[in-house]
Design a protein that fits this description.
It is a single chain. With about 625 residues, this protein is α+β, with helices and mostly antiparallel strands. It has three domains: about 230 residues, Glutamine Phosphoribosylpyrophosphate, subunit 1, domain 1 (4-Layer Sandwich); about 220 residues, Rossmann fold; about 60 residues, no CATH class. About 40% of the residues lie in helices and about 15% in strands. The longest helix has 27 residues.
């Protein structure tokens, strides 16, 4: 796990490029405290910061050269099947001119470069891991850049007349000196609506993300982007299995995924909230690990916010070396400024991840497994139930639109609430279906409400594109919701926050639920096996008696904190000053944010803390990064 940087420019001298890349490396020092490397040739310069996880020797430092020096790589991530691929690459390819590759290190980095030499861009079909990397071919004068299938590892880039710049984070590009960057006003409405910006766009104009499951080939100042992994192409082969056979297959794939992610040459552990997903990961780790599993739970004295009792139950069942890290609200608030400074791209949900990651890193581990992805894959969120129930109400489309509008108006009049406003907006849609309902389910505001904040707001274009690509297959509605969840909330909020906040303290997070073999199989399972009558039924049944009933049947909590109270008390002045500063930037309708803040302080039930906190974060981030 590391941080990578690069500049390709015909206008900048080699010395200037090297200087800029070294400065970019410095801005990624938190991602890679173990080594700092840079290399420059012709019109290109690569930079790398290393966090040593596999092969801790200096042989694995980067930029890394192939044996013949033709290829150079900078790489961020982990390749979980590198040992199997290494054996394959040490053999000559039967029936071809491909010769064995002679490895000089034990690193997965060298496996990637050898795989590219053997298979070219088809090497990505062989990889199982999380990665973002760039390979320079000195003979072809070209650069090959790729990102993992699910987007666990980020890759930002800027491509303009003054050059091509890429990085593991957005801030090194902003401050690279290649040009003066500004706020991307076209996506502010999207950020307001969803607490994030959906890739490939970012909050900065001109800086984009390489999409998950995509690669880029850059040559002669031209960049060509291709897609190699299609999460939206669902195979129904899973339907051919009985329910018992399906459960057995899920158990097999998840167990193998956990086992693959235990390869490391550093101390590691697992986040343990006590929920189904993290408990499943810990239970499976304990079955395959040769050492006692270390588990980490952040707990609170306030029982309403703490899941520690469930974490202790799992730790006892699997005899883990359990670390319960007590954090008081005061401790959290004290660390909040550094959490906000660590944020690479603004998000409404990042500080929680930072606090957990920092506590885990301080306890002595460099890598931790997480239950991220379980809810998205196994229908764990309420949005799955809501979309399934909506499917049964197709008769609504037979009603005259004026009748639906009237019903929506009456619902709003009876009780003004967030849910009531959303139902009313849904009833106003020309057609009520998956494509119109899903974006509204995930939004903080209705479109009508958003227009009071931002003139001519058009926040729905990108999410509607994503939702339209979700597979509309008979008996696979929940798979369509999974694809939408993975492509929106998971990739653009959860994974982005997990990466930027964990790497801020040099902690690597691995997510067993995001193994593409597991995802491809579960997406092919029909709704009758997954319908959420009970929490994540298919996952629970697949685990057999691994988890106790107290875990399976307990209420879903998540990592929650008393933000509603804090924003009105300890954080009141901080929030108010940032709201005022943001409004003065002339991005929002004059007086709209101040009015929103006033309604929040006055107890308006339609203005909960999450509808205003991300605006505070946006201003903090803009000030921190000097964005106009």
């Amino acid at each position: 796990m590391c941080g990578i940087n690069g500049i390709i420019s015909d206008t900048l001298s080699g010395a200037v490029k090297l200087k800029l890349v070294r400065e970019m490396n410095t801005r990624l020092a938190h991602r890679g405290p173990d080594n700092d490397g840079a290399w420059e040739i012709d019109n290109l310069c690569f930079g790398h910061r290393r966090l040593s996880i596999i092969d801790l020797s200096a042989d694995g430092n980067q930029p890394f050269f192939s044996n013949d020096k033709r290829y150079v790589i900078v790489y961020n991530g982990e390749l979980y099947n590198y040992k199997e691929l290494k054996l394959e690459l040490q053999r000559a390819a039967q029936g071809s001119k491909n010769l064995p590759y002679f490895f000089k290190t034990g690193s997965d980095t060298e496996v990637i470069i050898a795989a590219y030499i053997r298979w070219g861009n088809k090497c990505l079909d062989y990889f199982n891991g999380m990665y973002a990397f760039a390979i320079y071919d000195a003979s072809a004068k070209s650069v090959f850049i790729a990102r993992d299938r699910l987007g666990v590892k980020p890759l930002y880039y800027y491509y303009g007349d003054d050059g091509f710049v890429f990085s593991s984070e957005i801030r090194p590009i902003i401050h690279s000196g290649i040009k003066k960057f500004q706020l991307n006003r076209d996506v502010v409405a999207e950020y307001a609506m969803y607490q994030t910006v959906l890739a490939p766009n970012t909050i900065i104009k001109g800086i984009k993300m390489l999409m998950p499951g995509h690669y880029m080939e850059y040559k002669d100042q031209k960049a060509e982007i291709s897609k190699y992994y299609f999460i939206d192409k669902i195979s129904k082969t899973s339907d051919e299995l009985s329910y018992a056979e399906t459960c057995t297959k899920v158990n097999e794939l998840l167990s193998l995924s956990v086992q693959r992610r235990l390869v490391a040459d550093v101390p590691f552990g697992a986040f343990l909230s006590g929920g189904i997903d993290s408990s499943a990961v810990v239970g499976l780790m304990s079955k395959v690990s040769t050492e006692k599993v270390q588990t980490f739970n952040v707990s609170f004295d306030e029982s309403e916010f703490s899941e520690s009792v469930y974490a202790r139950l799992i730790a006892k069942k699997f005899n883990t070396q359990h670390h319960e890290i007590k954090v008081s609200p005061g401790d959290f608030l004290t660390q909040l400024p550094e959490a906000l400074r660590a944020m690479d791209h603004p998000s409404g949900d990042g500080p929680n991840t930072y606090i957990v990651s920092k506590a885990t890193k301080n306890a002595g581990v460099t890598m931790a497994l997480s239950g991220i992805g379980g809810d998205e894959l196994f229908a764990g969120y309420d949005v799955f139930k809501r979309m399934a129930e909506l499917q049964k109400k197709s008769w609504l489309n037979a009603l005259p639109q004026i009748a639906r509008r009237t019903a929506g108006f009456m619902i709003q009049q009876k009780k003004s609430s967030v849910s009531g406003n959303k139902i009313a907006e849904l009833l106003r849609q020309p057609k009520i279906n998956f494509n119109s309902a899903y974006p509204l389910n995930r939004s903080l505001y209705t479109h009508k409400e958003l227009l009071s904040l931002i003139n001519n707001a058009s926040p729905l274009k990108r999410i509607q594109e994503i939702v339209s690509e979700a597979p509309q297959i008979e008996d696979h509605l929940l798979s369509a919701v999974s694809v939408a969840e993975i492509s929106t909330y998971l990739q653009n909020t959860l994974l982005r926050d997990a990466d930027q906040m964990s790497m801020a303290v040099a902690l690597e997070i691995r997510e067993p639920f995001l193994d593409h073999h597991l995802i491809d199989f579960v997406l092919g399972v029909n709704d009758t096996y997954k319908y959420p009558h009970t929490p994540k039924k298919l996952l629970v049944d697949s685990l057999g008696d691994l988890l106790p009933g107290e875990i399976v049947n307990r209420p879903k909590m998540g990592f929650t904190l008393p933000w509603q109270y804090w924003l009105k008390n300890e954080l009141k002045y901080f929030c108010e000053m940032n709201i005022i500063e943001l409004e003065n930037k002339n991005i929002f309708v004059e007086g709209s944010l101040k009015n929103l803040w006033k309604r929040f302080l006055g107890g308006d039930q339609t203005v909960v803390w999450s509808r205003i906190w991300h605006f505070v974060i946006l201003n903090v981030w803009m000030e921190e990064n000097k964005i106009n």
